TrEMBL record:
Statement: the UniProt record of this protein carries the keyword Disulfide bond: no
Domain (CRISPR type III-associated protein) ranges: 10-303
Stored Pfam families: RAMPs (PF03787)
Keyword Transport: no
Name recorded for this polypeptide: CRISPR type III-associated protein domain-containing protein
Organism field: Thermosipho affectus
InterPro entries, per the entry: CRISPR-assoc_RAMP_Cmr4 (IPR013410), RAMP_III_fam (IPR005537)
Amino acid sequence: MYKIAKPVFLKVVTPLHAGSGQDLGIVDLPIQRERHTNFPKIESSSIKGCIRESFEDLEKENKLEKYGVDDIISLVFGPESGDVHASSIAFTDARILLFPVKSVKGVYAYITSPKVLERFKKDLEISKTLDGIKKHFFDKKRKLKKLTVSNREKLCISEKVILEEYAFEVEFSEDTKGFAEWLSALLGIEEIKDKLVILPDDVFGDFVNLSTEVITRIKINPETGTVEGSALFTEEYLPSETVMYFLCMASPIFLKKDKKEKILKELMKNEKFSEEKFVMNFFEENLPKIIQIGGNATIGKGISELKVWKTEGDKQ
């Protein structure tokens, strides 16, 4: 049973293609989406695989020497093959939090919706990190309202925000401003505080379905250097600046007692942490700030920034 959970934020730096396979629709290679909302997502298996690979690179560079054992990656992430023991760390699917949309004023805006924020709140409750911000926005007396902006002067023209070719009459909200400022400081993304727009759920759904990037690519014949037959295909990408989040969860280490005691004695030295706390600390201390997720790494796609939620009681 996983005993500790922490939110991890993911900001897309270069367009990200976490593919769902081939499709017979308009786009040949669409991105992964939730079945019931059609909102973009990144499968937890993709998240775990990319993070594990980044940790294996650290092991190759001998940056994990202080832990004193060679197989700590398998101990935390589970063995590559076989069923000797389970992983001590788990990840949820990455969910959408903020989606960038072209704006007539301010170049682009970050859109979200009441449904997205409600799910964000519930995930914070699961990870027991809600208390830190409850006093600001998520208590029962104050709810973030739809069709509000965090900064009228930076986004609006005559009380309207114009996103793509659509104009929305919006209000300024102190609650939305406060939420945007809190999130901006938490993630270290300055633009959020002046660019946040809360739209109705159905409108938000339309934007995340219709305003993703679709790139047409071709396949070149290596012998002739020309296009191979009718080898045109289209790929869908999450645009740069998209902000998502997922939960990282840690459990005690799964090993037989005699073997576990020997390994933990070596790993934890004189530390007084619980096993799950050791696993979470290991993850936080060694998680790279930037990793590559999804396909097309060779053409620079999928570079993403990661940031773990920090609380006052966290080990620094």
